[in-house]
């Protein structure tokens, strides 16, 4: 873990729970794409920088989930590097309490205020095209989180953030986190058409061909869609539907899984309602979901 893997002349990634991209800007300066999940990850990145005598000039965050911004504060404090994050995710990076609050739908209890959902605050600036290093390209990847992006480097390596999961992850956890299902599917269809020297997803193996894995993720979304519609053959409230999904997929509920899977299921319900596949009705002061 935290091994530096070279992909091409200037592009690398650091093997970690969420892969960290590293790109050489010249012989002495580098930038990071994300920073890992906590201060300890930041320390290990710093050791790699020191061992190679590299100066960190900037961290480009793909989005604001805690496992991608957790090393920000430590690395910025150590190196005085700039931090950039896209759109709404920049605000979440500045005020990370927004992540567990958004997931829970209110002020999060202590069980949700931990490093896996609540990173330390960091001084991020808005990511704009004019601040990118020469030859870099931003690739918009909405769906998983608000304004998530990926990056194409000058030597044609694409860092894909969390826009898809590995087969192993999907087979184990089944329901991957999605904020906007329609946007997520559109992003995956776009990703299928991309070409690059190498693709580096944060939670899957680096590969020269991403299309098959993108399709596997698309198929899993439609499987869950069908499962939810089937379960709503009779009117169900959200909590019962969530319980049945956990049971069907043999998942174990705790606070973290409750908010991550629960938020995702709410996104599926909103998408299915907007596309006319489910109805919502209020009965005895309870919101119920049912097939059209």
Describe this structure in words.
The chain is 38% helix and 21% strand. The protein contains 10 helices and 14 strands.
Outline the fold blueprint:
Blueprint: E1 4-6, E2 11-14, E3 20-24, E4 29-33, H1 39-51, E5 55-60, H2 66-69, H3 72-79, E6 82-85, H4 87-94, H5 98-104, E7 125-126, E8 137-140, E9 149-152, E10 157-161, H6 167-173, H7 181-192, E11 198-201, H8 211-231, E12 236-237, H9 238-248, H10 255-274, E13 278-283, E14 286-291
Parallel strand pairs: 4-5, 5-6, 6-7, 10-11
Antiparallel strand pairs: 1-2, 2-3, 3-4, 8-9, 9-10, 12-14, 13-14
**How many whole angstroms does the radius of gyration measure?**
20 Å
Number of strands: 14
Number of helical elements? 10
Rough outline:
globular
Helix content: 25-40%
Largest sheet: 7 strands, mixed
Low-confidence residue ranges: none
Category from helices, strands and their pairing: alpha/beta
Strand order of the largest sheet: 1-2-3-4-5-6-7
State the separation between the terminal residues, measured CA to CA: 49 Å
Question: What are the secondary-structure elements, in order, as H or E?
Answer: EEEEHEHHEHHEEEEHHEHEHHEE
Strand content: 15-25%
How confident is the prediction overall: mean pLDDT? 98
